[in-house]
Each structure stands twice: as structure tokens, then as C-alpha cells.
Amino acid sequence: MPPADLLDYLHGRHGDNQRRIHANDRVFNSQFRYASNYIKTSKYSVLTFLPLNLFEQFQRLANFYFLCLLVLQLIPAISSLTPVTTALPLIGVLGLTAIKDAYDDIQRHISDSQVNNRKSRVVRKGKLSNEKWSAVQVGDIIRMDNNSFIAADVLLLTSSEPNGLCYIETSELDGETNLKCRQCLVETAEIGQDDALLGEFDGEILCETPQQSVEQVRWGADMERQILFIVFFLLSMCLFCMVACGIWESLVGQYFQTFLPWDTLVPSEPLGGATIIALLVFFSYAIVLNTVVPISLYVSVEVIRFVQSFLINWDDQMYYEKTGTNAKARTTTLNEELGQIEYIFSDKTGTLTQNIMTFNKCSITGRSFGDLIDQRTGDIIEITEDTEPIDFSFNLNFEPEFKFYDHHLLEAVKRRDNDAFSFFRLLALCHTVMSENREGRLEYQAQSPDEAALVSAARNFGFVFIERAPNSITIEVMGVKEVYELLCILDFNNVRKRMSVILRKDGKLRLYCKGADNVIYERLKSGMDDIKNKTQEHLNKFAGEGLRTLCLASRDLDEEFFNNWKQRHQEAALALDGRDERLDAIYEEIETDMELIGVTAIEDKLQDGVPQTIANLILAGIKIWVLTGDKQETAINIGYSCQLLTDEMVDVFIVDASSYDEVHQQLLKFRDNIKIVHTFQPRSPAGVQLGTSNGRVDASNHSTGTTELEYNRGVEEAPIEESTAGFAIVINGHSLVHCLHPQMERLFLEVVMQCKSIICCRVTPLQKALVVELIKKSRQAVTLAVGDGANDVSMIKGTYFDAVSLGGHGLSDYMLFCSATAAMLVIVNTAQIALDTSYWTVFNHIMIWGSLAFYFIADNFYNYVIGGVYVGSLTKAMSEADFWFTSVLVVIISIMPVLAWRFYFVDVFPTLSDRVRLKQRMAQVRSRQSQDVLRTPSARRARRSIRSGYAFAHQEGFGRLITSGKIMRKLPNPEFNIPNIINKLNMTSGSSNAGHKNHTSTAPHSQDGSSSGTRAPMQDLDTINL
């Protein structure tokens, strides 16, 4: 292609919204620089890891703050602290986070390598060659075998299966494990398995450009906001000190330069010098006051985050034994962010339930099957594991795992009842299930477990689906093969909520249809009121038992009418504009005037531990919304089964009106009922159920009975906020349309915010997304969505978190853990401060122990007065003996390393003050050891003579020696007594005063051993070393 023509092609035919691809033409396709098939989910390489990881980490406010602080501490002019105190914790945080990021990225590299190195068979010059998936390019023709992995978007050209069919699983895209059927074009199906024809294929593909929009997820950042607040507080203090310093230096400080000279870099001019000093002081105070921002706490939190992420992975209670799957925390902040969740939006099928469907009961032309009836009493017998199921071994294609207990249904089939035959024929024909023979055994692949359960039920009762072709369906009815010509499939979607097939056999045309009961009932022909009413009773009964129901109907068609309809259907199917709308209108024409055949009831069991988990979540104050497509009765029954709805609730509201005005009136009635309950508090124990209301019952119905009400006069009508009262609300899909109207949003929110549980039934995927968006926008809350299929994608995209296993106690325990940990941290810090305090005063006691008391007072004030999110958590924790035992243990374990560290440094690397204190203490110890002598009886007897001597002495006496307590010590030497001490003192005094005549006399001993002296020696007794 010439360059000019290529340019015209690029700008003209190859627009921004579409692209053309030539098969088997790499040269042509390479001109457009399409993305390669190389998968890269990793973030780093060996060379880019360090700079990119540090760049990402310093985008966090706390890390950037400590980096700035470290830079300031490296400037001698403003720093008075060593930078080591900041560098070591910062390096520790960065290193720990880098190790975690490196580990995660290594796992991504391993996953990418596994995908990129998968082998594929690509057509090259008319031959198949093996290549890696990463080498496959846009426009290549590839060959895939059964159960092979598909790592790119592909267009099906041909298949080895009859009629160009194949089946794919999209579990990695939308979570659906059921197979989807795809069929190639008739023109390309003729290529078959001929490699030469595949190599010569030169078709052109016109398709849309890939969608590159990325949904951004917002994560909780409470700690970042708190650190930001602390930093602003620190800067405000530094600013105040800077202004104060500037004012003092300009008014007073300039006159003290003789004693406090300014630095050389400060100008000598008073105003300029004061300004420079103030600026330097600003940064100096930022360094000195850096402890306001708790880097130690920040480091501790990072370590806790990292360790707790592994605790989630190692939690045995979150291990699913059937699949051998552990919980996987993909972010270190998962634990704390889960603790911030206020709203959970959950699908029902496959999320609260197991999505394993079993055919349980049915109703055929007004007769119910499935219950075991006691022939004597007429009561329903409960089915247990010991109950004997029906033996289907007469059927060669039966499934041993299929169980049904009502023999009456099998008897009706065996006697060839027309209604039973019509019922099971519809189940065997009206579906999109694919059959496959594996090792001589017939197996089914269905798009939904509902379809698989229904086709399986028909199979076990003798109506076996054998195979399908593009234009035919083959079944076996009680051993007899029947082939039906398939004329048209009217497929199921979330708007139609039904599917139909049109078949021809023996020249007769018939439409078989199955779908939601409300949709089918609207399209039944007039008459048959008796069957309709009985079937409706059975529907309500099945739904009340939590079973999933489907209605079955059929219609005989006229050949002429069908041919006319088929032509218009083909025109609508080929329309380029409004194709879906035109097809729906065409479907409506033929899916009318149908005859009701019966109802199926399928059981979908709850997941293990769902009731306990939901009870714990509600106890933690989390609002739970269940958004499901099931009918109202089924949703309500599931709500009671999983503890979303309980008998202790004050009221369960039901919004089921069809028009805007009726929905508005129901919501107003519910709001008034809520105000009544809030105004009148029942004296009876909390949790009395006052009834279930649908908005059409008078309010007096809720205030009658034995419950005595008492008026609270202090309560005024005010804008209603969230309530903890026991309310729940069930909303139908057609009512939800009006509730989401902009003019009714406010009233709708006022009602639902008072409810613990909200169930939305009969909702579409779009309505799920709108509900999530409404709560996010109005409440500014952290939300979690749990889903398992493609119909939950829009709901999941609108929340902060996209999935979590509902199998643990989790969030209430997390709040208790946070409160207890914070309290223990305060206690440990207070204990360490007390150990560091060497001189105690009254002020010290007030500040240290008062701060500990202030914490508990502030916690109660924040939670009970202001209404914090952790209300009651610390109180509940402190009521347990484990809290106090753990607190003592934590204090001991936390302080022991600190004490050991300090003792080690005092002993090995003592400071000057340590040496001075040590010398003083050693001197005191030696003094006490030398004075620790025994006091003999003669010493006690000599005490009287000492006092007499002191009374008649003309020189300094022994009063100071007595009052000092030194002579009260025990003297180890019995000869060491007071008379001997006086003699020695006199002798010392005489020898020291040579040439001076000093008269001394010693009184003779009296009988009591006392002695007296005429004069005391002239000497300072404090200098005597005893």
C-alpha cells in the first residue's frame, strides 16, 4: 500500500472508534502498532525497583515528612540533634515496605512468566508451529485444543464440533464457572481442520477498539489525615515560636550580643538579623519538636500491618477445606481497612448461598409434588439424611447423586400422565445446555446451575436430553428417542427474565417458555383461574421455604402466524439501530396467550457459617444490604435463614407498590412508624416484634397489644440519622425504580438509614450499581461489595472493596483489638516515663498518672458523648479478666528490653553523669559499710557520761555527732567505745598542738561504768572517719 493511501486509510477508514485487522498479515497489522500479547502485571525490574519504590513510598505524607526532617537535621546551622534518631526508623520503615513490595512483585513476575510461556499453535505459512503466547500478535490464526488456556481475545473461525460450536469458561473474567456456547459463521466453518486453508485465509475483521478505562479505587487514609493534622499543628507551633523569637531579638536580643553573639551568617543590622534568626529558629523548632509526630508509632503501625497481613493468610478459620484455599491478603492495610467498613452489599446466589442447585419440589397443573405426607395425620414429614429416596435405577441414564423423595411424581410419569409428560418435556427441551459423552457417560454443560438442575431432574425422571444441533434437539422419553426441529431460541436476559424455544415435531409448532412467575403470569391467556390460584399458592409456599421458583408455560402456534413473525424477527435481528429494542418487541408478540404447565422449586443452600457471620457483622454496627434477583418471598425467607431478619426486630417494612405516589405513601408511613417507635420507648424487654408492615396497614396495628408505651417528653422531631433500632426493609425492583428517583432519594434514605438490614429483590444489575452509588454519595462511607458473577460486576465496581469471604468473626473483634491495643500502648508509655523520672514531685505525679487517667476519660467522652465509631469497645474489653492479664504481661514484656538495654549501656558505655552518680552511690555504700558496727552495752552505758560531759564542756560538744545517728550504729569492735574515742581525740589534739599545755583529765569509772570529761576537744566532728 502506498504511503499516501495508507495515510488516508489510517485517518479515514481506520477511525478512533474501530479498527480493521487482516488475518495472516503481520506486516499490515504491525503498521498500526497494536498492543502485543505480552502480559506484564509486575511493577518493577532489578534496575527500576529502588528508584520507583522509593518514589512511591515518599509519596506518602509521613515518609516525606520524615525525609524533610532528616534533611533539616543534616544542616548544622539549624540542627541541635543527631540525624541518626530520624534516619534509623525511616530506613527501617522504607526497608520493611520495600521487602514487602519486592515479595509481591516477585509473585507477579512468576505469574506473568507462567502465562507468557504457555505454548500455543500458530499458523505460519500454511503450517502449524509452536510459539509462546507472548509471541502471538494481532491477526494471527491459532489452534486451541480441548481444555486449553486462552490468553487473548479471539474470533472463532471453525471448530471440530458439529455445526461449528465450542464452549468456553470465563471464570477469570466474571467468576462464572459455567460454560458458554459460541458458534462460528457458516462461511468460516467450512475451513475445518485444513491447515492449508487456514494459512490462505485472508479475511478482514472490523471491531471496536479495546476499552482502556480504569476504575480507580479509593482506600481509607485515616492515618495519613491524622499525621497531616499533627504536621499542621507542629508548623503552627514553629510559626508562633518564629514570630516570638523575631520580636524578642529585634526588641531585646540585639542588646545582648556581647553575651549571646549572633552567628556569622546573620547580618549585623538589627531588623535583618532578627528576621534571619527567626527563620533559622523556625526550622530549629521543627527539629526540636519533631517528637510531636510519633515516628515510633508510625513504625509500629507499619510492622503491625505487615504481620497482620500474614496472620490473615495463616488463619485456620478462614481456610476452606473443600478446595484447599487459604485467605489471601493482597495488601498490608487490608485488616485496618476492613475495620472501617460501614456498609456491605451482597448478592444472594453464590454469595450467601452455595450456588449448588437441587431439584426439590414442583407443581404441575395445580398439584404439588415433593413433600412427604403422613397418611394417618396428614402432616408433612421432615426429610432427613435417613429418609429413603426414590430408586431411579430403572433409568439407564439416571444420576446416583440425584435425590427425590415423593413417589407420587414418579408414579404419574410411569402411568404416562399428559401433564407430567408436558412438564418434563419442557424441562428437557427449553434450555441452552450442551451435552457431551465422556468415557461413555452423558454429561451436561450449562450456562447456569438452575438450568443444569432442571435438565438433570428431567433426565432422572426419564426425559433425557441427548444432543443438540443448530437446527434440532434430540431427547429420549422413557427410552424412546424424539427429534425436534429447532426453529428459534428467544434467549434469556436480565430484562426479559424468561427464555423460550420454538420447536416443530410432526408438523406441529409449539412454543415452550420458562421464567419468573410475575413475568409468565402477565402473559398467560385468560381463563384457567383455578389452576392459576392453586399454582400461586404453591409458589408462595415454595418461596416461603427459601426455594428458587420458575414458571413453565407453552403455546401452540399457527404456521402462517409463525412465518409472518419469523420474517419480522429476522429483520429485527439484522437491524443496525435499536436492535435490542426491536427484538424485545418481536418477542412480546409471540410470548402471549400461553398455557400454564407448572412450577419448579430449586433449593440453593446457604454457605457454611453465614447466619453466624451476619449476626456478628450486625453486632459490629455494619449495615448489610442484600441485592438479589429472586422474588420477594424467597428473599424474605433467605433473610430469616441467614439472620438478616429476626423475630426480635420491631418491624419489617415491605415496599412493593408499583406507582410513584404509592411508593411515596409507603415510605412516608414507614417514616412515621419509625418516629413513633423512637418517641415511645417500650417498657417490655427490648426486641418485641411489633409486626410486619407493607405501608397499607394503619399505624394503630403496631401500637396495640400488651406492650405498654411510655412517652418521652424530651424527644423532639429532628432530622433522623442512623438508628440502632430493630427495623428491616424489603424493597421490590419495580418499587426501587421510584425510590431512586431524585425527588424521592431523600425520603428513601431517611427510612433505610433506620434499618439494620435491607433486602432488595427482583433487582437488575444496573439497579445494584445505582443503590451502591447512592449510599456512597450520600453517606461518604467505606463500602464492601460481595458477588460471584457477571451480574455483580457493576455493583462491585462502585465500592471501595471488591470481595471478601463472609466466614469469620472479624470486624467486631477488630474494634475490640484496636481499643485494647491503644490502651495497652498508653499504659506501657506511662510506665516507661515513670521509670525515666528520677526525681518525683507532686507535679510529676499529677502529670504522669493524670495523663493515664485522662486517656480513659477522653476515650469515654469521644465514644459516648461525641458518638465515636468505637463506642463501647474499650469498656467491653476492660470488663474481661483477659484484658488486665494481657496488659500486665505486655507492660512487663515491653519494659524488660528497655531496662536491659539501659543497664547494658550504663555498664559498658557510661556517660559523665552516670559516672558521677555511680561515684556518689559507691561513696555512700562504703560509708554505710564502715559505720555498720555493733553497739555494745558499754556504748549504751557511756551515753549518759557523754551528755554530762557535754553539759559542763566549754568547747564544742558531741551534739552534732549524736543527732547524726552515727554513734547509734552497731560497733563490731567491743573495745571501740566512747571513752576510748575521747582519749584518742585528746591525744590527737595534744600532739597536734605542740608547745601548748593542754590539761585533760579522766574521771574514774563509776560502778555503772559511766565516765565524764572536763572538756571536749576543739575539733569538727563531721571530719571524723569512724
Automatic annotation (TrEMBL):
The lineage of its organism: Eukaryota, Metazoa, Ecdysozoa, Arthropoda, Hexapoda. PANTHER family: PHOSPHOLIPID-TRANSPORTING ATPASE, PROBABLE PHOSPHOLIPID-TRANSPORTING ATPASE. ATP binds at D347, K348, T349, E451, F492, K514, R548, T628, G629, D630, R762, K768, N791, D792. One of its GO terms (biological process) is Golgi organization. Its cofactor is Mg(2+). This is Phospholipid-transporting ATPase. Residues 808-911 form the P-type ATPase C-terminal domain. It is a multi-pass membrane protein. It comes from Rhamnusium bicolor. Residues 21-86 form the P-type ATPase N-terminal domain. Its EC number is 7.6.2.1. It holds the Pfam family Cation_ATPase. Residues 987-1014 have a biased composition (Polar residues). Residues 987-1026 are annotated as: Disordered. It comes from the Eukaryota. It is found in: Membrane.
